[in-house]
Amino acid sequence: MKRLPAKASFVPADRIRFPQNQAQALRLGDGTTRMVHSLLQLPARMGFGEFRWDDRGVPSGPIWLRVDLGRQIVSVFRGADEIGTSVILYGQDATPTPIGNFPIRGIERNHRSNSYDAEMPYTLWLTNDGVAIHGSDVREGLATHGCIGVPLDFARKLFGVVKRGDMVAVVR
């Protein structure tokens, strides 16, 4: 697997566009689907700690996220167009990341977990019992206690576009 330098995270990505009558359906956490018109085209498989973000030319629209635990990635969409994607960490066997659709319940720039004595920058709360998306050191071999960890720079960008109520679909 070709490993890209960390600065490659900011390189604009090409876009795979689907004709209007050939939009692609993505399965959501509750089994429903949502249609997408474009995805970011990546030059290679991303490694741990890498991400891409490119919202150039993407029209305004609601933000929503799709977390694919099986592929270990998150995709950020504006309307029907992907604007960001990243490799993630997720819950270990004893504390798995829940599957389903979750509205973002709250947003907190600087949070520290009392349960695990860990920094959780750019926290997006998904559940009442503490599952969130937050900035993490995304490295091979690491896991979370149910949260979805994303690279810090990606978390910062994500934090800048989401709002309370935006939907996060978690699938396996």
What are the SSEs and their pairings?
Blueprint lengths: L13 E4 L6 E4 L5 E4 L1 E4 L9 E3 L9 E6 L4 E6 L2 E7 L12 E4 L2 E8 L4 E8 L6 E5 L11 E4 H10 L5 E5 L1
Quick overview of this protein structure:
The protein is mostly beta strands. It is 6% helix and 42% strand. The strands form 4 sheets. It has a 6-stranded mixed sheet with strand order 5-8-7-6-14-9, with helices on one face.
Calculate Rg over CA atoms.
Answer: 15 Å
User: Order of helices and strands, N to C?
Assistant: EEEEEEEEEEEEEHE
Our estimate of the beta-strand percent is 35-45%
- Helix percent reads under 10%
List the uncertain runs.
Answer: 1-11
Supply the CATH architecture. Beta Barrel
Q: For this structure, what is the CATH homologous superfamily?
A: L,D-transpeptidase catalytic domain-like
The CATH class assignment is Mainly Beta
Seen as an oligomer or otherwise, the chain set is single chain
Distance between the termini: 23 Å
- Which word captures the global form? globular
If helices are DSSP runs of H or I spanning 4 or more residues, what is the number of helices?
1
Structural class: mainly beta
Q: What is the averaged pLDDT score?
A: 89
Taken together, the total number of domains comes to 1
Reading side by side through the largest sheet, how are the strands ordered?
5-8-7-6-14-9
Largest sheet, in brief, is: 6 strands, mixed
CATH topology: L,D-transpeptidase catalytic domain-like
Total E-strand runs: 14
